Structure prediction request, 699 residues.
Amino acid sequence: MSLPRTMVTPMADPTPAERIAELRDVINRHAEAYYEQDASEIPDADYDRLLRELLELEEAYPDLATPDSPTVRVGGPINTAFAPVTHEMRMMSLHNAFDLEELAGWSERVERRLEGRPVPEFSVELKFDGLAISLRYEDGVLVQGATRGDGAVGEDVTHNVRTIADIPNELTGAPPVLEVRGEVYLTLSSFAALNDRQRKDAEAAGREPKLYVNPRNTAAGSLRQIEASMTADRDLSFFSYQLGLVEGGPELETHTATLEWLGSLGFPVNEHTVTSAEIGDVSSRVEALNAMRHDLDYEFDGVVVKVNDLRLQQELGADAKAPRWAIAYKLPPEERTTTLLDIEVSIGPSGQATPFAVLDPVFVGGVTVGTATLHNQDQVAEKDVRPGDKVIVRRAGDVIPEVVGPVLSERAKGSKPWPFPTDCPVCGEPLVRPDGVAATHCVNFACARQVRGRIEHWAGRTAMDIEFLGEKNVDRFVTAGLLDDVSGLYSLDFEAILAMEGFKEKSVDNLRGAIEASKEKPLGNVLFGLRIPEIGQVNAQTLASSFGTMDRIIEATVEEIAAVDGFGTVIAEAVHAWFAQDAARALVARLAVAGLTLEAAQIDESLEKTLDGQAVVVSGTLDGFTRDGAKEAIVARGGKSPGSVSKKTLALVIGAEPGASKVTKAENAGVPVIDEVAFAELLDTGQLPEEFRKEEKDA
Ligand code: IVH
Prediction:
């Protein structure tokens, strides 16, 4: 396996001795931040890689191995603010496996040491991401809680441990001396609640909130408070997973039996531990646990596999740092560091300017990440990431990759905060960010990106559905000056297109046919295709069926638009303002000349207005009408057909496979739910058949 030299700018061709010295130095620096200040600067995965490289070098050059190397040291130096506690039984670390092959290699070594005896059974459990502690009980009373420290000497945190609700202060049926080891951690919900509180407090005091970075560091920091009341405030949790020194007590034969006994004494033991005799099954279990990674209310960064038989554990023993009978399988990292090569701004189809990070590609969360969004100007400023920085990149589960922040200790001297560009990178016009709004926009209607964006949207399947006009063609036609707005599609110079590379008679005919067919698309699609602010697919259909014609929409007042079911003034003002623009009206006029469908239905003026002002909602497939046809029939009779049911709805017409939520809503609101036959009668007479009429309420 080749390991990247993350976080170390390698010297040119260092000798093994130089590289070893360099690695020890960097590892010690990061270990200090992690263990002493409870603030890891780099992800664990990067730290592990550095340690692994050092270990491999020391194995290759045994002369260069030293007893104080971080590869033999457990944990970090201890804080003198706490009284030292010498562990009667050392608190060891665990060796790591980074893939299933290394896991299998470990189990083979175990078997070899056991010299031909039957393959042992394994206990497979979660590796919790918190802080290891040892709890000492004498005659059933908690007398001491200590951190791991360097494995031999830890810190006395008894006063804090007593505040943790998961940890019993007294035990019944305990032996004279009992040491219980386990992990103190913070649940994700407590972590979120803590940060919520930080936000609220900061808001009340009118300052920027100081947020906790992750649950592990917060748990570690909370346990190592001088004041116990500070620890009590943090809602820490605990899982027990191991015994230390025990005097008296039951004869236990397996690790599983140990866990059961701990549980019976009142200690929390994790529910996801299983035993298995097959290393193949162990591997599947590891993968199953990995899949649960984001389903639990606490973090785990690996799986610990332990030989279950305690006598075999004794026999296998330990080396200077860790037992041979256990291994920690590290789950693929979700955080890694890499270099932020640059910050660029992309202009979206609506003109929104979004900054994004260009990264030295890094494998994280199971994929290679080369770019990551930085969302908006405030986010870049808040994270203060700068081109050239080493940054932490996170990709957890299916969540999009994010840049967590810079590694400040690695920042080049003299670096400056990144300035958000003042001009659009596409058209060069000034970018605009209104007060109180997070997003920055290019507002140049003629900006090539927006022109392309509007045409791409217009051609989309849910709008005018123009096949053969993909993003690439739009880009080519706009660049070639053949197209500058959607109406231009209806007078495209197909001769010029035929002359372009890659086009033949057939492909040009296909395109022409698809553009021609779009003229038949109903008004609702045209409205959606225009990208009017606030007008998505559903609102567009509602607008079309409520007003019936484009002209009526253009002429409508804000009040009339706001009266449409489900609209209100915000949407109404946006629609009204859009149609008030000269450019918008001119565009609509050009579309009319091109022959697009700008009326929802042939409004047959001779039809009686049986539904004048009434709202009838249609859901599901009807036999005698298309979806639009049914709405048009309603509009033609003076009614409207909004997309959703409200108290004011006259009736909900249902065909095959109606929307369940509409039916429930109608039932709850006491709106009659009618079939197609009743619908026909309603259209004719404006009356519901007897059986569907709302019961008259007594006044
Ligand atoms: S057993 C001698 N089991 O991992 C073996 N450790 O890298 C002692 N850890 O210091 C550890 N979950 O903080 C064990 N289920 C688990 C664990 C676990 C998390 C931590 C513990 C330990 C570190 C070793």
Notes: Residues 16-36 form the longest helix (21 residues). The pocket of 2-(butylsulfanyl)adenosine is lined by residues 92-94, 125, 127-128, 132, 148, 183, 241-242, 304, 323, 326, 328 (CB under 6 Å).
